[in-house]
Amino acid sequence: MKKRHLAIALFASSAPMLHGAAFVYDELIWVTENSSFSFTDPTTVFYEIDSDSSGLFGASEFQGADLGSFTVGDELYLTGEQKSDKDNSTDVIGHTLFWSLDGGSTFSTLGYGFQSDLGDGNQVWGAANAGNLTSNILDGLGAGSYTLSVWSTVTTDGVNSDTTIFNTNGGSNYNATFSVVPEPSVALLGAFGILGILRRRRP
User: Fold this and answer.
1) How far, in Å, CA of 30 to CA of 165, rounded?
2) What range does the record give for the signal peptide (predicted)?
3) Each residue's pLDDT tens digit, 12-50
């Protein structure tokens, strides 16, 4: 069974989504088949989840993307990174990535750590460089089609700004689909079983 991994790294640039004295911008999603995340891995593909921009850094839209097909028992992970800007005495104290399956009310989170200060209130927060990942998204999933929704937030101290800045695609989140198929051995056993039944039913 080949294990495939999806790692999502959020970057956050030139067309910011303004919320008071703090904002998040230029978010990208990175997809990779390697469990050890690397930005330079040849299997890594990136998407954007920025509703204010299009084609950021040549990235495709995550919204509406088909992430491919996985086998029951495979693994799928998310990680991320994004930038924020702050001014007017506002302090950014956290970034978080959220994900859920099939629009359910239950969601999981991945907290981002502070990475670097870019000056003029711009900062980089993330989990990708540290190699931190979510739990396995495919854990317990049977064969079928699924929708993966992602969104992110910035948390501030509430001084001259909302305490939570949302990147949610206008409340609809960013949604991509994928499918899970049975392991080949299971599918073959099922086919052989059907053939056996048909043979027994022959007059």
Assistant:
1) 22
2) 1-21
3) 554 444 445 889 887 877 777 667 777 787 767 788 888
Encode 48-83: b = buried (16+ Cβ within 10 Å), e = exposed.
bbbbebeebeebebbbebebeebbbebbbbbbbbbb
The model's pTM is 0.82
Paired with 149 in beta bridges are: 100, 175
Q: How far apart are CA 125 and CA 113, in angstroms?
A: 5
Three-state DSSP state, 32: coil
pLDDT digits over 95-137, tens only?
999 999 998 889 999 999 999 999 999 999 988 888 888 888 8
Smallest Cα–Cα separation from 172: which of 109, 100, 68? 100
What is the model's pLDDT at position 81?
Answer: 86
DSSP character at residue 198: H
Distance CA 76, CA 159 (A): 38
